[in-house]
């Protein structure tokens, strides 16, 4: 099973789209804070080897990068 998380990062929130075997399973918005990252972590931990893709948006994406690195998730 291939699970891909596409994340569109903006200043206050991020749009998360989850695809499994190229089919969009669900999408949601999270705040760029501990509450939002906790929701994302639950989803990331529900699959093996999630692929995480997002565009580096400078200062806006740094919190997401730090969160993923702190939890040992690779990203592109």
List keywords for this structure.
76 residues, alpha+beta, Nucleotidyltransferase, domain 5, 2 helices, 4 strands, globular, DNA binding, transposase activity, Transp_IS110-like_N
Characterise this structure.
Pfam families: DEDD_Tnp_IS110. This protein is globular. The chain has one domain: 2-Layer Sandwich (Nucleotidyltransferase, domain 5). A hairpin with a 2-residue loop joins β2 and β3. Strands 3-2-1-4 form a 4-stranded mixed sheet, with helices on one face. The protein has 76 residues and is α+β, with helices and mostly antiparallel strands.
Q: Nutshell version of this structure?
A:
The protein is 28% helix and 37% strand. The chain has 76 residues and is α+β, with helices and mostly antiparallel strands.
Contiguous low-pLDDT stretches (5 residues minimum) are none
How many domain modules?
A: 1
Number of helices: 2
Name of the CATH superfamily: ATPase, nucleotide binding domain
Which helices and strands, and how do they pair?
Layout: E1 3-9, E2 13-20, E3 23-31, H1 34-45, E4 51-54, H2 62-70
Parallel strand pairs: 1-4
Antiparallel strand pairs: 1-2, 2-3
């Amino acid at each position: 099973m291939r699970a891909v998380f596409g994340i569109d990062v903006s200043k206050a929130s991020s749009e998360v789209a989850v695809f499994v075997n190229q089919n969009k399973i669900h999408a949601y918005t999270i705040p760029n804070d501990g509450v939002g990252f906790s929701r994302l972590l639950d989803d990331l931990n529900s699959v093996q080897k999630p692929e995480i893709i997002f565009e580096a948006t400078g200062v806006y994406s740094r919190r997401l990068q730090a969160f993923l690195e702190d939890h040992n998730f690779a990203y592109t």
